[in-house]
Inverse folding.
């Protein structure tokens, strides 16, 4: 029964999502803006700064850790080492895609229903709170995830088209796959769970948006750690991180159910 | 057989008492009118009976389910029409209803069920139109369909005609009447006393506490004695004297060409009364019973209660 309920929520949410021009635009356009911007910055760094960037302390530390993880990089010329470093770091930037989509899409998912009055009717059906919240989170997380994977593919195609195809072998490592296919889903679900939870607690769309801002900080922290070379995320570390975030997904669902106050939604929202 | 039973059902919001010690029983197939002023606790009661909020004291059993414990099973067998008929305005009427139907295990084919009910309320032609384009009356009918899709044992209707134009309100009332004839148990909260009298078998008056629960007729009896009105062609002192002398006449009052009487037995004494009037030379045009509007009963109940409070 739960599967039927969640599927029902997913299908309805997707129709609503893709018939709303703003949401559809965010989901379909934002990933390419992130990838485009990333490629532009990498090209600018490669073209104008070149391997002189590697002389800075931050990049040196990061490069040492990259070489330790992928020893073959040490054989490459300096500017190509820089490219591999920047492209490897960019993988974590892809985590911004589901997070940013969650910020804009999931934050309205419950608030909108509260305001339209449909939530009271929905809560009078046999739907369980966890089914409703998970359904809403997945409805946003799945398209966001698909768009992140497409963006990862587009990134590789553009890199090859720019004549950097030879170095993709150093970028597309087990770590790359683990990031895209294990860490990104875990982050996507967490982002949307947090967004939906914020939405269920907020009294109006503005309150929901303010709460949503908090979603992005953990991802920015991860990117910061990776870029500064404080920690280089090896496949084992990524696996561990995905596992921790996966557990956080379950915890956040349980917390979301506890924080979802049916009574106050029904009594206080008119 | 009782399908709704409440036992000292109470609900507070902080220090405010919304519903206090409500104990009542509703029989299967009955339409119960639930009357009370704004803030009397009608909506709170419906929400407690529909398992949407928990009581602070007491409990209720609806269709065999404790409303504070078996919420999911309860929701399978009840339907509720909330004050605001909230829908997804960008979705079609059909898609909206299919979505809600998809949560009930009793509905095997949501699309067939939706078609059946949309045809019933004559909205099938508009089934693919966005709900955002619907009038308020159409949305109310659609909300009523949503409450009915899973063919619930008990239907809770919270002010189903509030804010509707007379035509739309009549349509909704007609639907409720049909549902009642089909044997649905309906718990109808309304401010419209005529509507309650027209549709309901019994009426409950709530003002935080239950003030009265009975048939409209018995509620009238509580405050007003039965009075017979005899409309004569012309007033006649001789006729009045004859009537006063009848053993079963308790009280007589002349009001123009009318005699207003209280009889020992309003039904059985009527033929003898008419016979006596005619024999005394009186010409009877009509004999009827004085009808006190339910509104007067309701207002007396509320004023009494407010008097007690102050």
């Amino acid at each position: 029964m739960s599967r039927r309920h969640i599927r029902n929520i997913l299908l309805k949410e997707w129709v609503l999502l893709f018939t709303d021009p703003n949401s559809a635009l965010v989901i379909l356009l934002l990933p390419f803006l992130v990838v485009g911007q990333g490629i532009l910055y990498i090209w600018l760094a490669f073209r104008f700064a070149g391997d002189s960037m590697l002389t800075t302390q931050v990049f040196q530390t990061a490069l040492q850790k990259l070489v330790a993880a992928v020893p073959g990089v040490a054989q490459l010329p300096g500017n190509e080492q820089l490219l591999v470093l920047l492209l490897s770091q960019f993988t974590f930037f892809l985590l911004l895609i589901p997070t940013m989509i969650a910020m804009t899409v999931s934050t309205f998912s419950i608030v909108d229903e509260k305001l339209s009055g449909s939530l009271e009717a929905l809560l009078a059906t046999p739907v369980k709170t966890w089914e409703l919240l998970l359904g809403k989170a997945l409805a946003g997380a799945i398209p966001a995830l698909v768009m992140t994977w497409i963006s990862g593919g587009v990134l590789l195609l553009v890199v090859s088209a720019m004549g950097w195809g030879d170095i993709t072998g150093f970028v597309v490592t087990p770590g790359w796959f683990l990031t895209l296919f294990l860490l990104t889903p875990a982050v996507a679900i967490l982002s949307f769970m947090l967004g939906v939870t914020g939405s269920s607690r907020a009294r109006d769309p503005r309150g929901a948006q303010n709460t949503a801002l908090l979603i992005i900080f953990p991802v920015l922290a991860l990117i910061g750690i990776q870029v500064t070379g404080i920690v280089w995320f090896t496949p084992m570390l990524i696996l561990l991180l995905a596992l921790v975030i996966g557990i956080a997904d379950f915890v956040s669902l349980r917390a979301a159910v506890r924080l979802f106050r049916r009574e106050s939604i029904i009594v206080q929202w008119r | 057989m009782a399908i709704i039973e409440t036992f000292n059902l109470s609900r507070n919001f902080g220090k405010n008492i919304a519903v206090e010690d409500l104990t009542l029983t509703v029989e299967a197939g009955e339409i119960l009118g639930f009357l009370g002023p704004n803030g009397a606790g009608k909506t709170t009661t419906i929400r407690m009976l529909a398992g949407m909020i928990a009581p602070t004291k007491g409990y209720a059993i609806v269709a065999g389910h404790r409303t504070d414990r078996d919420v999911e099973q309860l929701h399978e067998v009840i339907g509720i029409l909330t004050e605001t008929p909230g829908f997804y305005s960008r979705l079609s009427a059909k898609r909206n209803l299919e979505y809600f139907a998809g949560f009930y295990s009793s509905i095997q084919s949501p699309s067939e069920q939706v078609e059946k009910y949309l045809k019933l309320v004559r909205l099938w032609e508009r089934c693919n139109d966005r709900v955002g384009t619907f009038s308020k009356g159409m949305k109310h009918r659609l909300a009523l369909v949503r409450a009915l899709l899973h063919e619930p044992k008990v239907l809770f209707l919270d002010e189903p005609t509030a804010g509707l134009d007379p035509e739309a309100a009549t349509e909704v009332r007609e639907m409720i009447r049909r549902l009642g004839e089909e044997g649905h148990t309906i718990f109808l909260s309304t401010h419209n006393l005529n509507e309650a009298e027209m549709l309901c078998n019994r009426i409950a008056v709530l003002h935080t506490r239950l003030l009265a629960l009975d048939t409209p007729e018995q509620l009238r009896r509580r405050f007003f004695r039965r009075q017979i009105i005899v409309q004569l062609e012309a007033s006649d002192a001789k006729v009045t004297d004859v009537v006063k002398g009848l053993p079963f006449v308790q009280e007589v009052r002349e009001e123009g060409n009318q005699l207003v009487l209280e009889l020992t037995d309003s039904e059985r004494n009527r033929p003898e009364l008419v016979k006596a009037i005619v024999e005394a030379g009186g010409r009877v045009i009509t004999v009827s019973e004085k009808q006190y509007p339910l509104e007067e009963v309701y207002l007396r109940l509320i004023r009494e209660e407010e008097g007690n409070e102050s």
